[in-house]
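Continuing the batch. This is chain 6 of the set; chains 1 through 5 are on the previous pages. Same settings as before, nothing changed between runs. Recording input and output for traceability.
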Amino acid sequence: MASMGPISILLVTRTKAQGKSYREWLEPRGLAVSTAADPEEALALADQSYFDLVFLADRLGGKATGPFLERLVELFPETVVSVISEQPSAAAAVQALHQGAFNYLAAPAGQEELLAAVEEALEHRRQRRQRAQRRRSSSVSYDVENLVGTSRAMQEVFRLIHKVAPTDSTVLILGESGTGKELVARAIHHQSPRREFPLVPVNCGAIPSELLESELFGHEKGAFTGAVRTRVGRFELAQGGTIFLDEIGDMPPMLQVKILRVLQEHAFERVGGTRTIEVDLRVLAATNQDLAAAVQSGEFREDLYYRLNVVPIEVPPLRERRSDIPLLCDFFLDRLAQQKGLERKELHPAVSERFLRYSWPGNVRELENLLERLVVLAEGEVIGPEALPAKLEDDQAPAGAGEGEGLPAVELPPDGLNLKATLEQLERRLIAQALERSGGVKAQAAALLGLNRTTLVQKLKKLGNPRYRNQRKPNGE
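Output for chain 6:
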């Protein structure tokens, strides 16, 4: 059997003896193996660690494991799942494949059969990655293929992109810094009828306010000191295509009026000019600010806000789509190997686990930059935990969880309160919100709360398992 690198496998077997046998066959091959006796334990392990492969018995304790298979595939789409059966049948095989399994096989009777099944599953994963890479390589630059993610949150982003791209509607892209707002803008443009014309990006926060007007609208010769010749602005350069106004929330109020006019009339004058210039273009904007709050405070024009916010697309932060982290890592490791001319490196399972636990305040950009550093500096083909920075220590609480940071203002009522009951109610509410945001994945919810998973489970038992609005049954109903 060829060397497979740091492959992590989860065995969910009918009996402990069977799991022990499989483990003894696999571990000498350098594979990291975990075992679980029931779906609940398996899902708890999957919450805590990333598994490349899962071997799942078709029945446990007399019950079919199909509902758990569907849940596992939904939460961890990059994991390859093979269903094993003591009494295989054609009907059961069809059902397992329909529920998301890679294959359905008779329970391996010996070491060679199990190793062959592992090889087959790994080859399937390798080919799947190659197909994805070919699609990315052959696609139009910055098409939606360059936005990586299979989580429900990202699927909603993709749905909106495909829906709005063929139209000329103005789109406001919302999200924290580093989430990929510009990639969304590029995907919209390159799937639109304007794709043959330019996409012109402008970072409104990076250009000094006194230069931004000239940058956007251009200027006539002699309009101001230093204007030695006429200059065409970004709006004219985007003629026929798309202009992307990034960090629109940083735009000075005096320019907001001119942007509003362009949106309404598709016309403007250059700085120092009198001739009205008409443009045919589409406007996409993005911000990491709360523009609605800026409108309330008078910092952003209300009429401009509504003109921009025709179709809002919110790009989720990485901490709210942790199931995409393994896929993003593969994407960036492939790309870095090509760009740097290096052998492709793999992540040790312990590194993958810490990536899943970390809160990623810098979002996808932080992940990409960290991977580049690790690829350049780490020795060998496998990036181990010793190469990670201190902030990714195993028990590190999420960034921003410092004492007192981010706490809402709370005042003691005139008649006092029951502190114990109030704190319990607040704790219950925050846990429910964390579970909702993480889609019920306890490891992700624990990371959002700055807890380890065991502590969160203990609190859930104590508080009676607070419910959240998107809670789903194990069978996905």
